[in-house]
Amino acid sequence: MRSFDPVQLGSIELFCKAAELGSFTAAAEALGLTPASVSRSISRLESRLGVRLFVRTTRQIRLTSEGSLYHRQCQQALEQIADAERILTGRQKAPAGPLRISVGTPYAHFRLLPLLPRFQQAYPQIELELSIANRVVDFVEEGFDLAIRLGVPPDSRLIAVPLEDPTLGVFAAPAYLQRRGSPQSVAELEQHDCIQFILPSSGRAMPWIFRDAQGRDLDFHFQSRQRIHDDVLGCVNWAIAGGGLFQIYHFVAEAAVRRGELVEVLQGAGHRTRRFSLLYPHNRHLSARVRAFVDFLTQAVRQP
Fold first, then answer.
1. Model pLDDT for residues 211-260, shown as the tens digit of each residue
2. Which of 50, 76, 77, 297 has the maximum number of C-beta atoms within 10 A of its C-beta?
3. Whole-prediction pTM value?
4. Element (H, E) at 247
5. How far are the Cα atoms of 116, 238, 248 from residue 200, in angstroms, in the given order?
């Protein structure tokens, strides 16, 4: 294993400051050094790593692809060191700093966003940055601290903290049910307009899941002329407009049901669940702000 030179930590700090400011001169001024010393330090770092971290021109510098990856990893390492020092010296009175979270659209809009004001009030020094999209993220490449996703990840490099197992139901607008009638069994869905959601991770349609009278699990796979990619909430709004039936979580549909925009059908075959989990890399030190968010959200979603 290659030994770590303590002097290298100073070079890494210089590298991160230059990447942040986009200039050796600006980094030198910020740190009270000369531009030449900053340039030499980063050149030594590049020689040690065997890669170019910056593309240099007469007017500016910019990170190479290797430099961008190294910068994200170094920033995380420096933040972890700072967290450790604050804990050891007793100066970590409140978690602080940036927190990047990736979350899918239904969970973001109907679970997470309504809870965030409470989190912000409890931790005013944490800077929240959310990416709301139904896609798989690369924690290292994209610099996320956490993700909220369905199910247990197949990636063994990720730790999954269970959040909740919300129930699902099939819903349609009153106008659709008046026009087409309500299905009385899962088999009757074949005669109805069922809106499909296409999973961005696989390009396949998400099956609808049910439970029969004997408590056995049923998965309903079907072909539909009505499909939506990427945005689950588009399926919900299509159903509200009278376009057909759609299976979604009760916590997403409940407000529309109260307003009379949606009606649940097939309740006797419903109430199966899908699990939501908080994900983070298992080899990453949990900063105080990440730990604060994990503890807050796991408690908040379980409160009645």
1. 888 888 999 998 899 999 988 999 999 999 999 999 999 999 999 999 99
2. 297
3. 0.69
4. strand 246-249
5. 26, 19, 17
Q: What are phi and psi of 95, to 5 degrees?
A: -60, 140
Q: Are 71 and 63 in contact (CB under 8 A)?
A: yes
| Residue range 266-290: mean pLDDT, rounded | 83
Q: Which two tokens stand for residue 280?
A: 């983070």
φ/ψ region of 46 (left if φ > 0, alpha if ψ in -120 to 50, else beta) reads alpha
* pLDDT digit string, tens, across residues 141-200: 677 889 998 877 666 677 888 999 999 999 999 999 999 999 999 999 999 999 999 988
Instruction: Spell out the residues 6+ positions from residue 6 whose beta carbon is closer than 8 angstroms to its own.
Output: none
CA distance 156 to 189: 37
Which range has highest mean pLDDT (29-43, 77-91, 118-132)? 118-132
H and E: helices and strands count for the chain: 11, 14
For 273, which DSSP code? Answer: B
| Residues in Cβ contact with 189 at an 8 Å cutoff, skipping those fewer than 6 apart | 170, 183, 208, 220, 222, 245
Q: What tokens does 180 get?
A: 């087409």
Flag whether pLDDT at 53 surpasses 80. Answer: yes
What lies within 8 Å, CB to CB, of 15 at 6+ separation is 41, 42, 45, 53, 70, 71, 74
Residue 128 DSSP class: E
Which stretch of DSSP H or E encloses residue 218? strand 217-220
pLDDT at position 3? 47
- CB of 255 closer than 8 Å to CB of 249: no
Instruction: Give 303's Cβ-side CA count (13 Å radius).
Output: 8
